[in-house]
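Table S7 (text form). Paired inputs.
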Amino acid sequence: MVSSADVQRLFLQAILSRRILSQQLAAKIWEKCIDAVKEVNETLEVEYRADRNSWDNFVTSVNDALNPLDLEFAHLHDEVSGKEMYAVVNRKGDEIAQMATEYTPAEIAYFKAVLEQIMLAPNESYCVSSLAALREVNSLKSNMTKSQAEATLSSFVAKGWLLKSKRGRYSLSTRTILELQTYLRNTYENEILECTICMELVTRGVACFTPQCKTRMHTHCFNNYKRRNHKCPSCNQSWSDGNLNKLRPVGEGAFKEGQDLGRRRVRRKSTEEEEGEEDAEGEENGEDEDGAELEPSQDEPAPTQQTKGKGKKKAVREESMEVDEDEGSPAPRTQRRKSSRR
């Protein structure tokens, strides 16, 4: 029997098949789902209303149904156009694991490597050249070839995980920012920028030209702000028409030729990660907890360098040193020499 709950089911099926979509399209799908259900059962009292409050209430009901599955019908604004975009995203654990349904572990590792270079790009450019993206294959513990990496990059672009500009540079897409937002905030806490106006992540936009000022805005947020304001909201620097050309770009506009031709950038590890690596390195190098080098066991013969005429004296000197270290138990080597002389 058809019920009003079927509206949600039809809606979610349509949303999942489209990955990410605008609020206008999502609202239209909601309307069509209501029409489809009422066509089967005209007695149902389900009405479509185009006002924002009705839409927000419907989204809340959808999220109530998705919450037990650790999913959310989330939204944010496109950084370029300002359009409100929606997608069903995973809110549990490592959100980047969502890609496992369509990519191999090696391809996911490659995506994370490229993502890291984008997030660590200097000058707040948040982009990486094609050459630098392909170079990330060398950092993987897999046998992925450059040609396979190139095909994988094309797949990331085709499926909306990355954007590729006309200049051949890769950057984060709206889908990546929306679906992997928690992962980005937790992993790149020091590299994340937030819009001063809407508080969403910024990888494309403008920055105040005053040194040390923290103001960052999406282009669409800046355009709306400057219609009524002519000063920086943080430092009160004048943003008159004569100063607008001084605003610094955030995103690909801040990219400087050759900035990614040097040494590969690596994320600064947290204190816990560094301590874990130091412990592992200390074990490999034979060091104790205090960082001191561990002494070789007495069961292992110490290496000696013998020269002509001095080999016997040197061996005897080492034997006496071993006896001094443990006076109660002479070294086995000393006992063997005494027995041989008898």
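Next pair, protein 2 of 2.
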Amino acid sequence: MTLSPTTDAVETTVSALPPHLLQSDILKLLDGRSLASLSSVSQNWRSICSEETLWKDMSATMWPSLAGESISALDSGYRSLYSDCITSSCPPLKPRRRRRNTAAYPTIEKLISAVDVYCDGQILFSKDFVTDTISDVFLNNPFKLQILSPKEKIPTPLKFDDEAEECIDVAEAGVRVSWILIDPTGKRAFNVTGLRHVEANRHWLNGFIKLHYATVVAVPSGEMAQCSVMVTCGGVHGGDMEVVDVTLQVEDLNLKPLTGSESLLAIGEAMAGRRRLTGGKMEKERYREFVKRRVEKKEREEMIKRNIDIVIIIAIVSIFFAIFAFFRSTS
């Protein structure tokens, strides 16, 4: 008599395997999407695939900075962390309608940054650090985070040419940065850089290449803002390309850096925003909309300024003729 494979038979076979063997030798070979799909097959698989250490190891493999000491304080929630980091945050580009005295996201008392720098898929640099967000110094000054000291550089195997346009293509294809912001209290995160940069250009003076990553959000003022990561690649002509600066800022439509308190509102919008697997396309579309709104705002401000100038000129001319007419009538 032959037995046809049934779900029960498969379940019995799987149940017979030690869970640690599945998690350490088999499931770790899967990516996050495959693991999530497998967890929906049955209750048994869901239990096996929900093990925190499995998602913790998977997160640290993809983003080595998530294995740092700052992130080790997160004793749970690694599956949610992985989901937040692998997707793009797409909050509405208009301010949310909220009830009075409510916010898009709870107050962020501490921010953990997890930064990884890659070249041709190989990890070059990892760093994690904590930023205190409740001090007056942070809240009232422009928000700016940097991972490198002024003299610190990250060497790459790429060659740098401060003139050839092809060098920009080389940097775009080879250099990639991931900057993840984590709220350890709310156990939410978002990858500021997404999967792709939104813009690349050269500095007009020194020829250094700038790769721009951005997540665009709406802030309560009604305008748009961008959580911006600027990666600067430079070096000596003909020598090795180096990453000389990686900076995170939150900027308004005028590219003016927001204060810490204002930046937390934008970061909160990104934390609370819906998530999508966009492949980097969504970030570029939203950035183009940001640039479009910025141009429109600048044109409006210039038109208002011209109109004010015209009114001032008319007022001055009118006063001059009024004074001239007065003295003429009295003479």
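Residues 106 and 186 are 8 Å apart (CA to CA).
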